[in-house]
Specification:
Distance between the termini: 64 Å
CATH class of the largest domain: Alpha Beta
Number of helices: 13
Strand content: 15-25%
Structural class: alpha/beta
Strand order of the largest sheet: 1-2-4-3-5-6-7-10-9-8
Largest sheet: 10 strands, mixed
Helix content: 25-40%
CATH architecture of the largest domain: 3-Layer(aba) Sandwich
Radius of gyration: 21 Å
């Protein structure tokens, strides 16, 4: 390996340590093409410009920004899909040249994922669902606890660059589901739908009932309910980043199907209608939008967001809370605490019977990562309150009556 390539790998490793996978990708791309000229210096500016150098949990936004940028005279601009194909080929052909800190995220490009632990008697199954809107595979965790009672179902939507196995390991929801006797479904996004495996929460065709990805995810949910002994009144959907934004979409467009949603580091429903507005939403630049758009009564939500999230601005969590303030009358309480070494502020709005309709956890010092997650998965932070446990607690305390049929 020549000196230039070694230097490029050292730079890419440092960027990966900083969770800046987008810039690490650019460094590797330049090394693969033999270009030695550095990128043009980033312009100074506010949060919107700073976000362009952050990791890309919603990289379709960064792709749009790159397409609008001036070409770099030192190298040919390449589409994101071509960059990913080159990275996959490089990671497959030359794995020994990848530093350890870079090999882990690029392993996702080779289709690898951490091994999901499965207790004796439990099952980790692959399923596939198809409808007119498209086809998606999904993983299904069935706990070892068997019984005649109907079980709750949690639908977990991964973030960009992730897949079902990665998210399952990182969030640790299967372990808690085993304790509580819950079934967990993990739909998998596909590269052909989004170059970085993001759910397309910002695309109008994927924001409406009975269309696009919401129709597919709802179809997967109904398929699991039909296959297993699921309580239709205890079905929940949660996610991180792009998956969290899509969970918001699902809770708004299918309120009769989901009793509650879990939104970790996500964006409010209606915050974006294209890639440009998605980028603005992520940066916190368009929080003046109309509140309560599409929000319907009965969809309870628990929100987790880190105060140090530089990928999806923390104001997005506040925007979701504001949606509830605009459409739900109820008592609001706040409390402070410390869990897992991190301080947090918890806000709750309850209905007249005292049932929490929304909870927001603002976790001090947490970046764009699943709070209390396992380091074996991507976009996780082992510190802080256990987001999975708190979500499950919020979900299962639901005393909502049987779902509506209309």
């Amino acid at each position: 390996m020549n000196e230039f390539f070694s230097a490029a790998m050292r730079k890419a490793t440092q960027l990966t340590r900083e969770h800046n996978l987008l810039e690490a990708t650019k460094v590797i791309q330049r090394a693969l093409s033999g270009q030695t000229a550095p990128e043009s210096p980033a312009r100074e500016g506010g949060p919107l410009l700073e976000l362009q150098a952050e990791p890309a949990p919603n990289p379709e936004v960064h792709q749009q920004a790159a397409e609008n940028a001036e070409p770099n005279v030192a190298r040919k601009k390449r589409p994101l899909g071509e960059v990913l194909e080159n990275l996959r080929k490089f990671a497959h052909d030359f794995p020994q040249k990848l530093p350890n800190n870079l090999a882990a995220p690029l392993a996702k490009l080779r289709g690898r994922a951490p091994s999901v632990p499965v207790p004796d008697g439990a099952s980790w199954l692959m399923r596939s669902f198809a409808c007119e809107a498209g086809t998606r595979d999904y993983k299904l965790y069935i706990p070892s606890r068997k019984g005649e009672e109907k079980r709750p179902l949690i639908v977990m939507l991964h973030g960009c660059t992730q897949n079902a196995d990665d998210f399952a390991v990182g969030a640790g929801m299967n372990r808690l589901a085993e304790e509580q006797g819950c079934v967990v479904a993990y739909p998998n996004q596909v590269i052909k739908a989004n170059h970085m495996n993001c759910w397309n929460w910002f695309d109008p065709k994927d924001q409406s009932r009975d269309r696009g990805e919401p129709r597919i995810i709802a179809g997967i949910t109904r398929a699991v309910i039909a296959e297993l002994n699921i309580d239709p009144g205890r079905v929940y959907v949660a996610g991180i980043s792009a998956g969290a934004a899509m969970a918001e979409v699902m809770g708004v467009t299918y309120p009769e199907l989901y009793a509650a949603t879990g939104v970790h580091s996500g964006v409010a429903y209606g915050a974006a209608t294209d890639a440009a507005s998605a980028f603005a939403a992520m940066s916190g630049a368009n929080q003046g939008r109309a509140r309560g758009k599409g929000r319907k009564a009965g969809v309870r939500t628990i929100i987790f967001h880190g105060t140090s999230d530089r990928v999806v601005h923390p104001s997005n969590g506040e925007a979701i809370l504001d949606d509830f303030r605009a459409s739900h009358a109820g008592a609001e309480t706040q409390s402070d605490g410390v869990a897992g070494g991190r301080a947090f502020k918890r806000t709750v709005i309850a209905d007249s019977s005292g049932v929490p309709q929304v909870e927001r956890w603002a976790v001090e010092g947490l970046g764009h990562a699943w709070s209390g997650g396992s380091p074996e998965g991507t976009y996780t932070d082992p510190q802080g309150p256990d987001a999975s446990r708190e979500m499950l607690r919020f979900f299962l305390n639901d005393e909502r009556p049987a779902p509506r049929t209309s």
